[in-house]
Amino acid sequence: xxxxxxxxxxxxxxxxxxxxxxxxxxxxxxxxxxxxxxxxxxxxxxxxxxxxxxxxxxxxxxxxxxxxxxxxxxxxxxxxxxxxxxxxxxxxxxxxxxxxxxxxxxxxxxxxxxxxxxxxxxxxxxxxxxxxxxxxxxxxxxxxxxxxxxxxxxxxxxxxxxxxxxxxxxxxxxxxxxxxxxxxxxxxxxxxxxxxxxxxxxxxxxxxxxxxxxxxxxxxxxxxxxxxxxxxxxxxxxxxxxx
Length: 243
Hints:
- This protein has 8 helices and 12 strands.
- It has 243 residues and is α/β, with parallel strands linked by helices.
- The protein has 2 domains: 5-131, Rossmann fold (3-Layer(aba) Sandwich); 139-233, Orthogonal Bundle (Arc Repressor Mutant, subunit A), CATH 1.10.10.
- It has a 5-stranded parallel beta sheet with strand order 2-1-3-4-5, with helices on both faces. Strands 6-7-8-9 form a 4-stranded antiparallel beta sheet, covered by helices on one side. Strands 10-12-11 form a 3-stranded antiparallel beta sheet.
- The protein is elongated, with a radius of gyration of 19 Å.
- The mean pLDDT is 82.
């Protein structure tokens, strides 16, 4: 098995060294930088299997780097580290596209467990794609088309400008049109380990997706609410005349 490469972007030198030590003990090759601008260039210019990213950095901050990663390397897993503890900060990091979130101080053992859990999900999706014939297939529901391989979504002939997590959420729905998902299921499938209690993150993403998909968000044609349970993407036949 090829050795994984992990990028650590953390300006606290002792913490960065501690994180690097545990990641190396786990068996990965590690690159460390303490500067946000250098971290951004490394993250988008080289291949890494995982990025451990601090929120507050000299130069480019963590959210700026995360946004750059999602534009250039949308499938690279990212674990954010932060001293911030407010709920709005956590939600912002998750909504911009972090795969998970650890608040300082944290246990190195917990950090490695989080990294392993994120990589398991990533590799399971890749394996599922291989079993399905290599590339994940494109989906069409009414006037909506979703291409997971190209990470493109279109409504009729109009390209939809979606954030990384908005696209992941839409792709999850599009793979199983008509299936009802609870908010907890969507958190687990799209955001993954460690986000219990953030169901409103799903709600905010649903609202933003509807604003980009629907002519009238009050009477949606694509992403439908199933009261008391969660959400689903309309069946293809139901959505055939929508858009």
